[in-house]
Each structure stands twice: as structure tokens, then as C-alpha cells.
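Thread title: Can someone regenerate the structure for this chain?

I was given the following input by a collaborator and told the matching C-alpha cells would be attached. They weren't. Posting the sequence so someone can regenerate them.
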Amino acid sequence: MSFQDPNAESKRKENSGKGAAASGIFAALAASSCCIPPVIAAVAGVGGIAGSLSWLEAFRPYLIGIAVIAIGYAWYNYYQRQKSDACCALDARSKWYQTKGFLVGVSLFAVVSIAFPYYSYIFFSSYDKKEIVVVNASNIQSVSFKVKGMTCRGCEAHVKTDVNKLPGIVSVDANHEEATAKVEFDQSKVSLKQIEDAINATGYKVVGRK
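Best answer:
Regenerated them for you:
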């Protein structure tokens, strides 16, 4: 006749739930990691890292699924452990990572992380309020750059913000879905090369223009 130690079973569920919560947090962060570097680059005032994790965009749906399953399992484990502790009358104070509050915090953090690509653009400056004085309308030129690496509105805002720092920029419209950056500029004040270099300096890559 075998005897199952209720404390051992509770410990197993504790470790399992902790691991699931950690996996959920990691997966949620990874799901939005393609859009985190642009914000870091903007806040730190550096370039070159924005497009470093753009390849993860293709795996975003899977990472979100992993996060949901992992955190869901952590919740399931929590309630199972609650039932087990009540049934066996185990006299043990829950650790901080075993509490309901911790799981609520993990769940909220995961939601905020997963949704990051949809609000990351707010971390960038107001690029649409730039005042432009055009000396000669005949100098205005419009070019559409094909840009590789943009995955969200934050990426678009990053490109717009940095290009607008150049002199003679009339307007910038970036679109991550079309992978384009349309720039209207005064060619007497700024060159195509300077604009292309500004885009490349963000970490995204200009692969063509028309």
C-alpha cells in the first residue's frame, strides 16, 4: 500500500504553477519583442537596434498562444492547489508567488506586454506638428522608400520621428503593412542619401525607392 505525501503533491503543484507563470511572462514579452527595441532606441537616443528582433513578428501568434496557455495553466494549478490544501488541511502560509494577487499581476502584465505593439507609438514625439517653411515650391520632391523591418505603429513613429529631424522635410508617412516610408522634402536642403541614412540609422533597412 503506497502513501502519497500531501506536502510533496502541494510542492509539485507549487513548482509547476511557478514555472507556468514564468513561461507565460517570457512568452508575452517575446510576442512583443519586435516592437520593444524601437522604444528603447528612442528613449535612449540611439539607433541601429530597432529592427534587430523584427524576425520574431512571424512567431507572434504562436508566442501569444503559449503565453495564454501557460498563464491559464498557472491559474488552473492555483485553484487545484487551493482545493488540495483545503482538503488535506495543510498548515502552510502561501509564498508571494503562490498568491492570487501575484497571478492577477502576471495576467495583467502579459496583457499589457502582448498589446504593446498597438500603443508603442505614444512613446515617440509629436512628429506631425513640425512647422515647415518652403522657400521654393519647385524644390519639393516626393519619394517612396521600401523599408524592411517595420512591424507596428511604433516602428512607423520611429521612422517618422527620426526623418523629421532632418532639415527640409515637408512630410513623412510610414506604413509597416506596406513596408514603405513616403517622404516629401525640399531637395535644396536635404538629399535622398541623407534621408535614406536616417532611416537606416533607426535599425530598419531601406531596400529600394521610387
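The first strand starts at residue 140 and ends at 148.
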